[in-house]
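tool_call: predict_structure(chain=1)
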Amino acid sequence: MARRKIFAYFSLFIGSLCTFAGLAFSAMYVFGAIIDRWGEADQSLLFWHLPILFLGIFSITVGLSMSFWGLNRIRSGNS
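tool_result:
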């Protein structure tokens, strides 16, 4: 019983970290590839930095799903 409760809190913690990391990766793309390069002739970094944006979107999705799962387990009392 205690192991399930610890797993729910662990999932909530890791989910929060993944969400914040995903937001950081998305912000890195926006500031590094778009805002800093605004007006330059070479816009190829918009393409080459796309994996950073996709990693951020994936990390946000995984982090939010883990966080909501952990919150639901804690609130329902099944943990």
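agent: Helices lie at 2-35, 45-48, 50-76. Proceeding to next step.
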